[in-house]
Amino acid sequence: MALVLHAGKTNKNAYKTLIAAEYSGVKVELTQNFEMGVSNKTPEFLKMNPIGKVPVLETPDGPIFESNAIARYVTRLKADNPLYGSSPIEYGLIEQWIDFSSLEIDTNILHWFRPRIGRAVYLPPFEEASIAALKRALGALNTHLDSNTFLVGHSVTLADIVTTCNLYLGFSQLMTKSFTSEFPHVERYFWTIVNQPNFSKILGEVKQTESVPPVQSAKKPYQQKEPAKLKQKDEPKKESKKEPAKPKEIDVAEEEEAPKPKPKNPLDLLPPSKMILDEWKRLYSNTKTNFREVAIKGFWDMYDPEGYSLWFCDYKYNDENTVSFVTLNKVGGFLQRMDLARKYAFGKMLVIGSDPPYKVKGLWLFRGQEVPQFVIDECYDMELYEWKKVDISDEAQKERVNQMIEDQEPFEGEPLLDAKCFK
């Protein structure tokens, strides 16, 4: 009897076994026409795993469930398999990294991802804690990889297979380039491993996500009876609520079904603009001297008032900003949650003052003539700010834009505690 793996074709936990099988020369057949939510509910499947989770490996001696256990079983089928190292200490270290990546990386990625696709209640403080825990784990992994190409020894082991498959969901669905750039050795490691022949045969072409999926929670603890509407200081406008975008199809966990394909964002349907946002972001990032003459002038040369709009924002509750690091973390969390708009926005956030309470003010460039509705719907921080559209015919407002882009200090007569850029 051949080994049969019961799972969908895009289940990242099934990838662990399939890749281990490639390295070990073990034949594993992926069951055909597996349908999550149907195939795993049949009496035959529930005899193999009574709680209906996938993957499950059907063997001549009986079924095995839990993805790490399955990958270990397949690896042990080959005598003296180098995937398990060549000494007791290497074996122990391989098991160490398998546990670390499962408990510290995979768990926190799922805690971040599942509420955003409607599989759990979305709680912003819980998301922030999950991201912080994930960054802590990635920091530890980054330190180890500073002086190591592989996790254990000098070649791929089962630790690399499990860890890379756990990172796969993060890179493909959540962790944008701006997020992973904090961990350059993890980046180098991930792209090195996924491009190994035995990995690419199973994973295919891997692409890093450009944005974090918007929240699609079935239960929204911060939801009001009526949809939240953004209040501007001047001329408030009603905006129709649009269906938020959905993430690309992928099996995300042993018990999850694949979400539906993502429709086009309404902003992608707007008439083409002469302003290329990425060109402005590159100019901003690469200008180190003569900022006014180069970057600011370049911005106004590029700016398309028909395709884009500029907005000032002021935090409504500055009297609460009494602790500097808490205020900075608040702004950092806002920018992290704005990642879903990275393709359509550029922003500057200033934390102002030498003594508390600190003032938080911002400038944002958005595609279109209004603050994007999907951002209002999905980023709860938006309601914490007063928003005012910039009138570029007003020279005073235009100069204020210039000052905020270049982090002019003092700003409006006060020193800057910090200036953060969203690009």
Helix content: 40-55%
Low-pLDDT residue intervals, each spanning 5 or more residues: 217-227
- The total beta strand count reads 9
Shape descriptor reads: elongated
Question: What distinguishing features does this structure have?
Answer:
4-stranded mixed β-sheet; 423 residues; alpha+beta; 12% strand; elongated; 9 strands
Descriptive account of the structure:
- By secondary structure, the chain is an alpha+beta fold.
- It has 14 helices and nine strands.
- Strands 8-5-7-6-9 form a five-stranded antiparallel beta sheet, with helices on both faces.
- The longest helix is centred in the N-terminal third of the chain and has 29 residues, at 88-116.
Can I get a quick summary?
Helices cover 41% and strands 12% of the residues. It has 423 residues and is of the alpha+beta class.
Write the layout of secondary structure elements.
Blueprint: E1 3-6, H1 12-24, E2 28-30, H2 43-48, E3 56-59, E4 62-65, H3 67-76, H4 88-116, H5 124-145, H6 158-174, H7 177-180, H8 184-194, H9 197-203, H10 277-286, H11 291-302, E5 308-315, H12 324-337, E6 345-352, E7 359-367, H13 373-378, E8 385-389, H14 395-405, E9 416-422
Parallel strand pairs: 1-2
Antiparallel strand pairs: 1-3, 3-4, 5-7, 5-8, 6-7, 6-9
